[in-house]
């Protein structure tokens, strides 16, 4: 059995309510150091609210959230902020500042939180953009000039700016075509391996689950119904899980995994480079 001590994130007994709606009730979840954990569930089951709770943007009605050895509910503001700076977050819509260039977007946290000079921050931003697979010329562009896939990569570069321990990704492949999504999946694994990240990934994308997740947590009925390796999750006796994993899309993703042909994808590349096929 996994104890809170084995976990980089340990959520215990969390309840979240909005008015009369209870989204989570006594929810427990463990995330192990170095894993890619996929979080799935029907629409409105509270995946994004759970992510927001773990990163401290949503105060639960009750329960505790231990992250990186600290209890976010009881720490003072300074200690809490030190832990929160070790998070990198990629929100669902990328959330870049539209009035700043891509490089300025990535440099901003380095100036604000790491106290770097503008020159140093923009130099380091170039490194982060390359790490996220963007070409050097992308830094000078405005977010509106980028393709959908490049916006995701720019937002990822910003999430990596402060060398996080944990990367939180909310629907990172939503809106990407299958080849762009497969390239993004590979990038996440490459970065996890190279940087020793732990990845908390909210997704609806079955191909992503099969391709990169070490374990999958399913949210249902206000709790984590199961959190296990994907084969064990797919075998769980639950109507939503059976429909999701063994419906037509689930079968296709499983076949792609077992035939080593994820999506309609190009050959994997060793270095993370932007894929020209990403949606524009
Ligand atoms: N700030 C808020 N105020 C009121 N209700 C909220 C708020 N945030 C989320 N909710 C509600 O909480 C529930 C869970 O929302 P959440 O966004 O976490 O779902 P989700 O599982 O991520 O859904 P999806 O897969 O559709 O993105 C929804 O019913 C949503 O309307």
From TrEMBL:
Keywords: ATP-binding, Cell membrane, Membrane, Nucleotide-binding, Transport. InterPro entries: AAA+_ATPase, ABC_transporter-like_ATP-bd, P-loop_NTPase. This is Phospholipid/cholesterol/gamma-HCH transport system ATP-binding protein. Residues 252-280 are annotated as: Disordered. Residues 9-246 form the ABC transporter domain. Signal peptide: none annotated. The keyword GTP-binding does not apply. Residues 256-280 have a biased composition (Low complexity). It holds the Pfam family ABC_tran. The keyword Cell membrane applies. SMART domains: AAA. PANTHER family: PROTEIN TRIGALACTOSYLDIACYLGLYCEROL 3, CHLOROPLASTIC. GO terms for molecular function: ATP binding; ATP hydrolysis activity.
